[in-house]
Amino acid sequence: MGPVLKAENLGYSYNGGFALADVSFEISAGEFFGIAGPNGCGKTTLLKLLSGAIAPQSGKILADGTGMATISPRRKAALLAFLPAEMSVPYDFTAREIAVMGRSPGLDWWENYSQEDYDGADGVLRLLGLEHAADKPVNALSSGERRKVFIAQALCQRPKILLLDEPTTHLDIRCQLQTFELLKDFAASRGTAVVVVSHDIGLVARYCGRLLLLKDGRPAALGTARETLAPANLRAVYGVEAETRADSEGGTHLLIKSPCKG
Amino acid sequence: MSKKTAAEKIGLFFLAALAVGAAAVFVGPVAHPDAAILLKIRLPRVLAGLLAGASLAGAGALMQGVLRNPLADPYILGTSSGAALGAALALLSGADYGSPLFYVLAACGAFAATAASYLLARTDNRTPAVNLLLSGVIVSAFCGALILLLFALKRDTAFSILIFMMGSITEASRAVLIGAGILFALGMGISFALSRQLDILSLGEEKARTLGVNTEALKLLAFAAGAFLCAAAVGVAGTVGFVGLIVPHVARLLLGPAHGRLSAGAVLLGAAFLTLMDAAARTIAAPAEIPVGVLTSVCGAPFFLWLLRKSKTEYKG
Q: Which single residue of A256, B138, B146, B208 has CA 20 to 30 Å from B109?
């Protein structure tokens, strides 16, 4: 089976200013893939391109073997879920009402959610430890819980490809670990390709099978966490002295020491 | 909130609307306590009030959802003025009050005005609240000016159009009520069918698209439904302000923001509210009548200001 998501020589620039260029990679089903890099390196732009929210100016994206540009919106929604970095809700929808929206792509436009859809949403909320919040307005929840509600919505979509932009912002350390563990399990058990953009390279190093390091809109390294987070790469991309260590279970831990001199 | 309690609340609204409607038939001094007065004057008037209130509140709930903006309302967006302009054009071209041409032009005017406000307010694929309020004011003023211009050219009807613009429930012939009823049913039918997608649109257009919503088609359909509803309201009552703003808010407080329940609640509450207002409008200064639009604006403008202050701190445009 081929890759479920494939990027070929992607290029995108904002009015001639910042540019993303020459980005290529393949992601297979069940893989937990991380995209990392310093501020302004193009992580979020790349994720938006992968979600189909914006179209690349050069190169192309194949999702499940089909060109992104030719997929109908509804099929795209059934194939691919995207969690943007910031979500605001102008009205007091409850957590359950937000989560169940993930079931929407499977419905015709006049149809409403079935009891099964609501049960599914409740199940996902439980999985994320949010059962107490199901009937509360999302705007009354803590920002971390609200973040999780939107992760729940994306999981409810049961996508083949799950794209998350900074899924763990606003989450405390325990929730960060739980969320990454959940996403890793989700990838492994459902065969979903999970792509995470994150500032937190420590988390990415621990949980993502492979990752892409970006610097100034260009790929700096692509491979396993051990390979990409080699000291030379971290110095070049982030300007920090750091090294990786393997734990007894084969996980990769990042040890950050100091900013590079000079 | 469980579904049962929501259904119970909607049921209560419905009973309240019926009760208010029934009571309103008898409100006010009855010069000749004749069945004829009740059935031929008061009853059509109450029906007109119920229909106009329901339509405006339904349109308000729809607009607030599709524009993700709790300040949206058919009066503020210029939709009502557009409908009034269309209706005025129809009257001037010789169409009868309540005729199909009258309603068709009113709906077209309403749609054009909404689209104009929306497009004027749109920048960088976003529709900021402040832009929308400004463009609504401009479109409203422009339509209002055109109506005045039309009637300056035809002075004999000037007074009736002034009442029309203030919003007043007076005449309601059978044709007027039937036309408005059809438009109301059409508008609400579309609105209910769109409710799930409107809920999703609350999360923003980009997110809605990733959930498979065709946002452009959705907005177009919602504007059309809003235009039908406003044409119905303007047909029976002229441009009555703020019902579409206040009522959906109250309904949202009681029933939550999900559009299916919200629209049902808003329609029933709006019907009850405007009928009550109209009963007040014709009794406060009896035998003189206050146009009902004056009363709703007196209540609605302070409410709007309160909401504007609140939304400045909460929603950041």
A: B208
